[in-house]
Amino acid sequence: MSERLRLTVFAAGVVGFGAVLVWGLAGLPSFGDFDGRYGQYLAHAAVPERHATSAVAVTTLDFRGFDTLIEEFILFTAAVGVVVLLRVQRAGEEVPAEPDAVRQPTAHSGSLRSVITALVGPFLLLGLAIVVHGHLTPGGGFQGGVILMAALFLVYLGGTHMRLGPFRPLAATEASEGVGAAGFALIGLGGIVVAGAYLENFLPFGRVSNLVSGGDIPLLNIAVGLEVMGALLVVLGEFLDQRLLMRKGRL
Amino acid sequence: MSFLPYAVAAWLFVIGLYGIVTSRNLVHLIVCLSVVQSSTYVLLLAVGYRTNATAPIFADISTSRSVVDPIVATLTLTDVVVEATVVALLLALAVQAHRRFGTLDPNEMGALRG
Questions:
Q1: pLDDT reading at A138 higher than 80
Q2: Which residues pair with B54 in a beta bridge?
Q3: Which domain CATH number covers B26?
Q4: Cα A244 to the chain's mean position, in Å?
Q5: H helices then E strands: how many in chain B?
Q6: A interface mutation test: which of B22, B54, B85, B107 has the most A CBs within 10 A?
Q7: Rounded to an integer, what distance in angstroms lies between the CA atom of residue A204 and that of residue A209?
Q8: How far is CA B71 from CA A12, A53, B42, in A?
Q9: What is the predicted ipTM?
Q10: pTM score of the predicted model
Q11: Chain A interface disruption, residue of B13, B42, B77, most A CBs within 10 A
């Protein structure tokens, strides 16, 4: 299809789509006038019923907890999908999943490396704070997990390598992903065993706005944080391996 | 200007689609797809907004304050996660496509197929 014909077809489609879209949007409540009873009920039930001050976290992990479980598995499956798609081409090649040889630093800049190394600690701390305060303030496992991933990724970006001995980073990230996904499901099962329904809270609620409050929500946040961090690190690791393969002239 | 957020959502959707249609590079195409998807965040959050309401976080406000809808916020969170996974999978497919065709231009891939 020529560029011109393609644009003509696109323009015709956009005109039709635009008409339907305007028609649909016209039926929405005017911006700011939304009166969702259900949402208001959930927002104002969060503190009395769950002793957690972030209504978004309560909605995500309690009222819609089952959806979030599925969402976690979507992330898990996608990470596995990326691994399957990219790792297959490593089969039969002598490039191992984790190169045994010492990786050459990506940049020979001492100041860059010291700045990046200095940032790792604060990033880790920030990520942890966002995860464990997820039931109190904006944040939670998904957001904090991404920051934790960035903290560990900085180690790689710094171009330095660490002698980790028997500790294999790739295995650890995969384990973190698995533990996070399984942890969420197991906390849900705990609800069946102790409280009678899946994902039903079975822990003491604690005092509102304490760090330890909200029942199982902080634990669920930690599970989600581990899962998100692990999944993103696995995906990034696979893409970086591709770069390594390309450098070796195999792609 | 009560319609402006909806207009932004529609604009993001259409401009992202335009980028996809005219894309000459798979990575660019995937970024355009994420622009299309970001229009859904704007739309969701715009739907849940209420005038003079604040975020549904009761850490430092009274529980009787008027707050915006928390459900659309969690839906947006789901949306962001799904987008991240979709982008990761598509980028992996782009790597495979580059390996097979030696190019990232969707047009040339079609030409190679004959």
A1: yes
A2: B67
A3: 1.10.287.3510
A4: 25
A5: 4, 0
A6: B85
A7: 14
A8: 35, 15, 14
A9: 0.85
A10: 0.85
A11: B77
